[in-house]
Amino acid sequence: MEDPFALLGAPRRYDLDLDTVEKSHRELSRALHPDKFTQAGASERKDALGKAADVNEAWRIVRDPLRRAEALFSLAGIAVAEDNKTSTISVPPQFLMQMMQAREELADARAAKNLARVKELGEQIRQKWDVAELKLAAGLETNPSKVVGILGELRFYKRFLDEVSAIEDEADGT
User: Fold this and answer.
1) Given pLDDT bands bounded at 50, 70 and 90, which one contains residue 68?
2) What residue segments make up the domains of the chain, in order of their start?
């Protein structure tokens, strides 16, 4: 896919006004809607459908913080995809130990059905996410290669927060 930021008319930066980008996405989606091309030739309909799909994928990338960061790293020539064997991401062992400890605490809170503790742990990680995200945004503006590890940290935080949400959903369902 081409540059998702350019496709949506958004600046190439992490810190975006997503409401403005969403508005651009909606306008592009309306302009490229297949109903507008019913009288067009087959190749023009196919092109419009392809462009509409590209616009939708660009919006999915830009609105997701991790995918947005991955796209920015990729545009800077830095391989960061999780399935990429040449990815340059590594996180410090101390960070990994902290995350293992947090996961153990979360597992204990889940087993004890201590939803207050689950929420507390989630809030702690959310605060760490916020700090890391600010560092990532600033670093992507100045020197992307120096903040690659922060993307790795955000991936760990995201998985943790997803698990917290799953535990909360599970508790709501019982």
Assistant:
1) very high
2) 4-63, 93-172
Neighbours of 98 (CB within 10 A): 15
The mean pLDDT of 86-101, rounded to a whole number, is 86
Q: How far is CA 33 from CA 52, 54, 166, in A?
A: 7, 12, 36
Matching CATH topology for 4-63 and 93-172? Answer: no
- State in words which class domain 4-63 has: mainly alpha
Which residue from 117, 100, 101, 99 is spatially nearest to 171, judged by alpha carbons?
117
The pTM score is 0.86
Counting Cβ atoms within 10 Å, is residue 30 exposed (0-12), middle (13-18) or buried (19+)? exposed
Q: Looking at 15-19, 47-51, 90-94, 131-135, which range is the least confident one?
A: 47-51
Among residues 18, 10, 8, 9, the alpha carbon closest in space to that of 63 is found at 18
Q: Which two tokens stand for residue 100?
A: 């293992």
pLDDT of the residue at 95: 95
pLDDT at site 79:
86
**Domain 93-172: assigned CATH number:** 1.20.1280.20
